[in-house]
Design brief:
It comes from Caenorhabditis angaria. GO terms for molecular function: cis-stilbene-oxide hydrolase activity. The chain contains 20 helices and nine strands. The chain is an alpha/beta fold and about 450 residues long. The chain has one domain: Rossmann fold (3-Layer(aba) Sandwich), CATH 3.40.50. A nine-stranded mixed beta sheet has the order 1-2-3-5-4-6-7-8-9. Helix 6 crosses helix 7, helix 12 runs antiparallel to helix 16 and helix 13 packs across helix 15. The longest helix is centred in the N-terminal third of the chain and has 22 residues. The protein is globular, with a radius of gyration of 22 Å. It binds 2-acetamido-2-deoxy-beta-D-glucopyranose (NAG) (2 copies).
Length: about 450
């Protein structure tokens, strides 16, 4: 293990060096303009936009209850580690199981989802599910189109408090004379969008599908907002199809070392001399080495999903309690690193059990944890996207930086090397920004767009 430890840093530097080398040798990037991910041979899309309501068969709910009743949580958390350091604490898992079995009411959350107008339309052989929410008629002088993109392990339910603030800011005490018409699609293989049936459905393919969706809805130019995969998808859309994008708002802005020469120089320099960072909050503890260590300690899931998603996905798709432990654990550490020290993972500090279980339910009832995990594999296989992510984005960009973001709290000195950052704001929030801190995030979107 010591051997491994000492190999880690040189390996990282070597990977960074190779990455950098390829940055210095840019090639022409040929972005594929179409693809087909439906079953069988290519068929023409049915472009009709159909209204959609969630209505899960009672049979699926009954089967879930039975599985919960029969679930086996026979392991015990270690006597001297009654926390989340080894993963989801079994004592808390037992409590969550009981809550799920006896108190959680899916129909209540189905009704909340159905308060949003939802639709389905076919693109590249896949039925795409999306929410399309307009501001109250006549209340705002201007209405601007905004696409918001979710990530893993999330879905559009993360936005249930965020969307109403974007479509009717005044109602929530945000002063603005404009509001957004919001389109929130489910990534294919997540929520109620079809699962891709063929390989290659990457973040770039997703960006292309989301762009086609906006064009189909009549929006030739629009705003983008995203975190997690949503941030990768929207920033790829802005790079590949800049003519359609007015501005980009990100609550996660990950820049890998080596992506840009100057960014890499800053990355290393700020580790040695943190005082060069303009943010007093980051200069206290920002360090590339710390970031690399966190990456190593907390992203085992990513390695599995990027290599053999179908294997681990098999058991997650068969056991609701396994699925819940796997997904909800992320809502602990990714909301605050310190929550790992708590017996309940600090899960209810920012979210209710109902909220967390609804996220899990959407994976369970659709049986799509495997397809959501395959998205990682496709990311690492997509060389076009990799090349695009090294391109500078001239479109005005905002970074709402979560100070509790586990991995990415990219200082503006670094992100400026790859994005035209016109708005930077630090918010005391973690990774699931729209879910945890909808109001500060919405405020930051309005400030950014207002200043353009
Ligand atoms: C950044 O965006 C602003 C606002 O649109 C624009 O005026 C400026 O030229 C852009 N800067 C770069 C470097 O692209
Ligand atoms: C969100 C947050 O914690 N911001 C802090 C960043 O640092 C300044 C100066 O130290 C504080 O005033 C902010 O509260």
């Amino acid at each position: 293990m010591g051997f491994f430890k000492h190999l880690f840093l040189p390996t990282l530097v070597a990977i960074g060096g190779f990455h950098l080398y390829s940055t210095l040798n840019p090639t022409n990037i040929d972005v594929p303009q179409t693809g087909y991910f439906g079953s069988g041979p290519v068929k023409k899309d049915n472009t009709i936009i159909k209204p959609f309501k969630v209505n899960i068969d009672q049979q699926i709910i009954d089967d879930l209850k039975l599985r919960l009743k029969n679930s086996r949580i026979s392991h015990n958390s270690l006597e001297d580690s009654d926390d989340f350091y080894y993963g989801f604490n079994s004592k808390h898992l037992l409590k969550l199981r009981d809550y799920w079995q006896t108190k959680y009411d899916w129909r209540k959350y189905e009704a909340i989802l159905n308060e949003f107008p939802q639709f389905i339309t076919e693109i590249e052989g896949l039925n795409i599910h999306f929410l399309r929410v307009k501001p109250p008629q006549g209340k705002y002088k201007t209405v601007k189109p905004l696409l918001i993109a979710h990530g893993w392990p999330g879905n559009v339910f993360e936005f249930y408090k965020f969307i109403p603030m974007l479509t009717d800011p005044k109602k929530f005490g945000i002063s603005s004379d404009f509001a957004f018409e919001v389109v929130a699609p489910s990534i294919p293989g997540y929520g109620w969008s079809d699962q891709p049936k063929k390989t290659g459905f990457s973040q770039l393919a997703c960006a292309r599908v989301f762009r086609k969706l906006m064009l189909r809805l009549g929006f030739g130019k629009f705003y983008l907002q995203g975190g997690d995969w949503g941030s990768v998808i929207t920033s790829l859309l802005a790079r590949a199809w800049p003519d359609n994008v007015i501005a980009l708002h990100l609550n996660m802005l990950a820049i890998q070392p080596g992506t840009s020469f100057l960014a890499t120089v800053y990355e290393f320099a700020s580790t040695v001399f943190p005082q060069i960072l303009s943010s007093p909050n980051l200069s206290k503890d920002y360090s590339f080495i710390l970031k690399a260590k966190t990456l190593l300690l907390e992203t085992g899931y990513m390695h599995i999903q990027a290599t053999k998603p179908d294997t681990v996905g098999t058991s997650l798709n068969d056991s609701p309690i396994g699925l819940a432990a796997y997904i909800i654990e992320k809502f602990s550490t990714w909301t605050s690193y310190e929550y790992r020290a708590l017996q309940d993972g600090g899960l209810n500090k920012k979210f209710t059990n109902d909220e967390l279980l609804t996220i899990v339910m959407i994976y369970w009832v659709n049986g799509n944890i495997v397809s959501s995990q395959r998205f990682y594999r496709e990311f690492f296989l997509d060389k076009t996207a990799e090349a695009l992510l090294k391109q500078y984005v001239p479109i005005p960009t905002a970074h709402a930086s979560g100070l509790k973001e586990i991995y990415d709290r990219t200082p503006v000195e670094i992100s400026r090397q790859l994005y035209n950052i016109t708005h930077y704001k630090e918010i005391d929030m973690g990774h699931f920004a729209a879910f945890e801190a909808p109001k500060p995030l919405a405020e930051s979107v309005f400030e950014f767009v207002n200043d353009l």
